[in-house]
Amino acid sequence: QVQLVESGGGLVQAGGSLRLSCAASGRTFSNYAMGWFRQAPGKEREFVATINWLGDYTTYAGSVKGRFTISRDNAKNAVYLQMNSLKPEDTAVYFCAAGDRPTVLRVRYDYWGQGTQVTVSS
C-alpha cells in the first residue's frame, strides 16, 4: 500500500502560481511512477502530468504544457506540481496518484490521494 497526501492548494488570481506537493508513505516510493490529475465540478477526472520513477521522463496534458512542471524528490518521498500562469479553467481538485508506469491513463494508477482544491479567480 502507498498512502498519498496532497497539499498546497488554495485561491489564486489568474496569472499567479501555486506549488502542489504530494507526500507518500508506505511502500518504496521510488518504485512508482507518479501522476497528477484534476477534476472540475461536473467533469471527468483528467490527466495533468506524469513522471517516471527516476524523474527523467515527464509528459503533460496539452492544456498545461509550458505552464506546469512536475518533479519528484525520492529522498523525501514527494512529488510536486509547479503551476504558473494559472487560468480560471485550471480550477479543480488536484489529485496525485502512484502507478507502475508513467501514463496518461487514469485506470493504470493504483493509489490515489484525497485531493487538494485549486481555485483561480479571474
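the 2nd protein, sequnce then structure:
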Amino acid sequence: QLVESGGGLVQAGGSLRLSCAASGSIFSLNAMVWYRQTPVKERDLVAAIRSGRSTYYADSVMGRFIASRDDAKNTLYLKMDSLKPEDTAMYYCAASERYSTYSDLKKYGMDYWGKGTLVTVSS
C-alpha cells in the first residue's frame, strides 16, 4: 500500500515536498515513480527513481523537481521548487517490482499505486 501526503495550495514560485509512505519494504522495488494527472490531460510520468538511485525526470520538471527515497523509512519523496500553475494536478506515487526504464514502465505499467495527493499552484 502506498499513501501520498504533502499536497496543498501554494503560490507560483513556491515549494512543496510530497511524501509517499509504503506499508512494506521498498528496498527490493526496482523503481518508484511519481505521476500526475489533471482532468484534461493523460497521466504523465513526472519523476522516477530506481533502486540504484538513478533518476529520470520529465522535461517539464527538470531542474525544479527532485525525487528521493529513504529505504529505511520506506518512503519516497518529491521536492518541488519553482512551482508553476501548470504543475497543478493530482500527484500519484507508484512502484514497479520488476521494471525501471521509462520505456518498460510505460509498456508494462506499475504494480502498486497510491490514491494521490492534490497540488494546486495559484498564479
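DSSP finds one helix and eleven strands in the chain. The radius of gyration is 13 Å.
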